[in-house]
Sequence to fold (213 residues):
Amino acid sequence: MEAVQDFVLATIASPIVYLLLFALVVIDGFFPPVPSETVVVAAAAIGVSTGHPNPLLVGLIAAVGAAVGDTIAFMIGRSIGTDRFAWMRRRRVVRAVDWARRGLDRRATLLILTARYVPVGRIAVNMTAGATRFPVRRFVPLALLAGVCWSAYSIGIGLLAGSWAHEHPLIGAGVGIVIAIALGLLVEVVTSLVSRWRKRRASERVIVAPALE
Fold:
């Protein structure tokens, strides 16, 4: 998907970049290989250095696109479930869906808001929410709020990197992408560790409970 990223960055000085950004962010909502976050960060970094694209407009487009993409994933889950196709039954996908289902039962609002930062995690959460008939009226506002928060986070990284390398916009874009990837990996690692810790605590409670009877 680097070719997609390079193509978008090649159009950075053209108004069409806004349409491409919107399309990438929407598709990323249900197809994680699309590099929407790094493109948004790079666009913001270049925008703060050169004035185009406008970082505020990039942020608005990213927020709306994220909400639309997440809602599409929700509707896909509502229509076909989470196990119809072979790729949905892969071990990693099954684990992600199981994690999403447990999380939605306990803390749906928090999970929908935070899952936006984990590419596979957000799709698992949103599709599972649709498959389990999570209320549409409740999901859409949460998806929009998650999109706004994710967009602000991405734009913030881009603005920081672009300001640091103001005279060299492409360097700023590269730094922003590295920061975004590093933070994304950190979020995924922390999420995994917290999930394992909760599973261990739950197992300990199951073992201790019979002993107390």
Notes: Confidence is low (pLDDT under 50) at residues 165-177. The chain has eight helices and no strands. Helices lie at 2-10, 16-28, 36-50, 55-80, 91-115, 119-131, 136-164, 169-212.
